[in-house]
User: Which sequence fits this backbone?
């Protein structure tokens, strides 16, 4: 098949590379000139494990361009993967989707299956269909399909090849799109969930909201555990063995971040409010998440006297391990809030860079040892494997103080304490 993927971000690039690997000819379009130049020069603008290799392997089946011109004509399938950020009030800003519809409408001259992979609120795909009709695209030349994406950054390629489901939302009279999508994904043996356009959009939001709820739930439980000197990791283990609950997404920590959970939960909240439905759970999930960092700053103040004159090594800047993505990263927010105390912060991350708007007392170091050197406290803000594998005797030698603050509960407490260091975790008594 000839497929046009619009948007060369985390989702668009992964989709393009995976579809090329499945044997399709894929044209990936992005309005960002710099990204396209990089891709055409053999560079990949984001860090995602295995992505560079998959793109190189399929270079002959992939093209990268700034404009849809020429590519739409050839494509039978168009996949929209542009960003859907939040407006100030939390509702979804559909300006990028809107501009794609404008770009597409004047170029559709033969039948296209238009698939939306971007996360969009219920009703958006119906609106896309109507908008294309209003712009004069004849109904026999297109159909609109909702195919939300469930990949996680850091394991995006694996998640796409081994998706636990492929969700397809169709218009009621659409008889042809399901077989088009099945042909496109042939090679991926995941179960299909076929529903309406609105149904597919809701499945995506409900999934992210449920996962975020699990995280805020365990973070609230961690607060209670702390007060009763109980280790929340034991509680999570006990909870997770119940098959009705499951073990995943019960890791207490600094709270959830990233480009999706924060915006998608806000968007679903606004969607509910637009229909006069009070989303009590969604509000509580956000309240817990928004206050999680404050708890750990307060704890740090209690643990270290004279915080303004201390040096803190913060390990981790990305919102989670195995990515360079810092969008809504709890680690970056923690660094920003902690820096207001005046203490010196030496930050380190294997892949992510601090943004340019930090105070002068925040310095990014290029190795973990440089960050730790002479530190009063080491604060684990992102659970990278590199931090879990640290040699704690060597860390002790390099540090000035002895406090290891494990804000992701990812370290082996005994190993840390055996080296004469003082371990503090999240909700671990
Ligand atoms: N990042 C993730 O892990 C996941 C993201 N999603 C959803 O997928 C969508 C995309 O997310 P990301 O890939 O993270 O975004 P991103 O911000 O990394 O990439 C979006 C790309 O679209 C391009 N773009 C915007 N308007 C355009 C236009 N009119 N024509 C051509 N290119 C245009 C931008 O230049 C950018 O490169 C969002 O709706 C997000 O919620 C869904 C599942 C996972
Ligand atoms: O819609 C999206 O964009 C994607 O959002 C998440 O994927 P992602 O944001 O890449 O990362 P997650 O692994 O879900 O982690 C999100 C945040 O929650 C935090 N988290 C996760 C799990 C946990 O137990 N505890 C916890 O604090 C992570 O540190 C991170 O900050 C979902 O897991 C994907 O299914 C979805 O496709």
Assistant:
């Amino acid at each position: 098949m000839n497929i046009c993927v619009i948007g060369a971000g985390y989702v668009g690039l992964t989709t393009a590379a995976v579809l090329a690997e499945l044997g399709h000819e894929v044209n990936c379009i992005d309005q960002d000139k710099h990204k396209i130049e990089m891709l055409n020069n053999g560079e990949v603008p984001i860090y995602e494990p295995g992505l560079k290799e998959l793109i190189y392997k399929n270079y002959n089946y992939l093209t990268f361009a700034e404009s849809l011109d020429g590519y739409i004509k050839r494509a039978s399938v168009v996949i929209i993967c542009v960003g859907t950020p939040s407006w100030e009030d939390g509702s979804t800003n559909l300006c990028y989707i809107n501009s794609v519809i404008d770009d597409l409408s004047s170029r559709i001259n033969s039948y296209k299956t238009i698939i939306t992979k971007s996360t969009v609120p219920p009703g958006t795909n119906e609106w896309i269909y109507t908008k294309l009709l209003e712009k004069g695209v004849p109904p026999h030349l297109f159909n609109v399909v909702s195919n939300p994406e469930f990949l996680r950054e850091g394991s995006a390629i694996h998640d796409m090849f081994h998706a636990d489901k492929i969700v397809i939302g169709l218009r009621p009279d659409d008889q042809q799109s399901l077989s088009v999508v099945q042909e496109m994904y042939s090679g991926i043996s995941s179960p299909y969930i076929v529903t309406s356009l609105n149904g597919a959009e809701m499945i995506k939001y409900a999934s992210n909201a449920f996962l975020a709820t699990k995280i805020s739930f365990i973070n609230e439980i961690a607060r209670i555990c702390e007060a009763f000197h109980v280790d929340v990791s034991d509680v999570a283990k006990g909870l997770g063995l119940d098959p009705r609950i499951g073990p995943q997404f019960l890791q207490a920590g600094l709270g959830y971040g990233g480009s999706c959970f924060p915006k998608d939960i806000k968007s679903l909240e606004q969607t509910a409010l637009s229909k006069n439905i009070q989303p009590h759970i969604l509000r509580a999930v956000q309240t817990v998440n928004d206050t999680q960092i404050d708890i750990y700053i307060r704890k740090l103040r209690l643990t270290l006297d004279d915080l303004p004159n201390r040096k803190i090594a913060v390990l981790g800047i990305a919102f989670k391990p195995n990515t360079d993505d810092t969008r809504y990263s709890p680690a970056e927010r923690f660094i920003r809030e902690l820096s207001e105390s005046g203490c010196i912060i030496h930050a380190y991350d294997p892949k992510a860079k601090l943004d340019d708007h930090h105070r002068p007392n925040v310095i990014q170091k290029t190795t973990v040892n440089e960050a730790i050197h002479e530190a009063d406290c080491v604060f684990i803000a992102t659970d990278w494997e590199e931090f879990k594998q640290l040699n704690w005797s060597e860390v002790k030698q390099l540090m000035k103080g002895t406090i290891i603050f494990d804000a992701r509960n990812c370290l082996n407490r005994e190993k840390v304490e055996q080296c004469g260091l003082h371990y503090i975790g999240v909700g671990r008594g």
